[in-house]
Amino acid sequence: MILSELLLALAFLLIAFLYASVGFGGGSSYLALLALAGLPFVEIRFTALVCNVIVVTGGVWVYWRNGQVDLKKVLPLVLVSVPAAYFGATLRLTEAVFFQLLGYSLLVAALLLWFQPGSKQTEKPAGSARPFRDGVLGGGVGWISGMVGIGGGIFLSPLLFFLRWDTAKKIAATASVFILVNSLSGLAAQITHWPQNLPWARTALLATAVLIGGQTGSRLSSARFDRLTIRRLTALLVLVAGLHTLFKT
User: Fold this and answer.
1) pLDDT per residue as tens digits for the range 36-75
2) What confidence score (pLDDT) does residue 209 get?
3) How far is CA 75 from CA 40, 89, 131, 159, 218, in A?
4) How many CA atoms lie within 13 A of 19 on its CB side?
5) What's the predicted TM-score (pTM) here?
6) Rounded distance between C-alpha atoms, residue 16 and residue 24, angstroms
7) Rounded to whole angstroms, how far apart are CA atoms 80 and 185?
8) Nearest to 149 by CA among 32, 14, 54, 5
9) C-beta of residue 201 within 8 angstroms of C-beta of residue 152
10) Distance from C-alpha of 225 to C-alpha of 156, rounded to nearest angstrom
11) CA distance to 157, 159, 194, per residue, from 117 (Å)
12) Smallest Cα–Cα separation from 187: which of 64, 33, 63, 57?
């Protein structure tokens, strides 16, 4: 059943709100919804990355303004992830392989999100940075993210919690920066095979929806918010998106 564009925009707004409140962009669920709507394969990845950039740009600005972006610790992650995401995005995958890779990746991400340590376990900074480890981690996540067309925050953030990388707020800020640069890198790679006859009106509608939802979610994330509940809801949403993607193929 083909979803109407208005209903799709409303769904994008709600997803952007939910994901932005925990420092993510929502690319995984955008991909699943666009696939459900029956849109062309190339348009799906392009639109999801555009919406990702819009959502996390607002989040990065809020985190930066609040002094929660630690560039010394963020740089080793993104310096390796950006080229990895670019080359991952240039790979010519068949539609079937793409959706299988996306589906299994989302299932892993859902488990990581659900079982990641609580924020109380990361109240104290982890100490000195480990650039080599972070570079390897960023490169691996960036490569996978580039192939499936998402920013990678849903993979990176739980892993940083498991490593007790820093405080919960700084991990959320780092995930937002990571998603932004990787999404931009993925978009740059997709320019080489730009979508033909892209319906710009629909893209603009969805972009406006995620702008509203993302800005609202980013601001509420700084307030007193039940982050565990939001994270568990996000994990369930990612799980549903992954299962739908696998069953679709």
Assistant:
1) 777 777 778 888 889 999 998 887 888 888 888 888 889 9
2) 94
3) 35, 21, 9, 17, 22
4) 37
5) 0.83
6) 8
7) 12
8) 32
9) no
10) 22
11) 11, 10, 40
12) 57
HSE-CB at 144 with a 13 A cutoff on CA atoms is: 20
Q: How far apart are CA 74 and CA 247, in angstroms?
A: 36
Per-residue pLDDT at 89: 85
Shortest CA distance to 169 belongs to which of 178, 159, 157? Answer: 157
What HEC string does the chain produce? CCCCHHHHHHHHHHHHHHHHCCCCCCHHHHHHHHHHCCCCHHHHHHHHHHHHHHHHHHHHHHHHHCCCCCHHHHHHHHHHHHHHHHHHHHCCCCHHHHHHHHHHHHHHHHHHHHHCCCHHHHCCCCCCCCHHHHHHHHHHHHHHHHHHCCCCHHHHHHHHHHCCCCCHHHHHHHHHHHHHHHHHHHHHHHHHHCCCCCCHHHHHHHHHHHHHHHHHHHHHCCCCCCHHHHHHHHHHHHHHHHHHHHHHC
The end-to-end CA distance of the chain, in Å, is 16
CB of 227 closer than 8 Å to CB of 168: yes
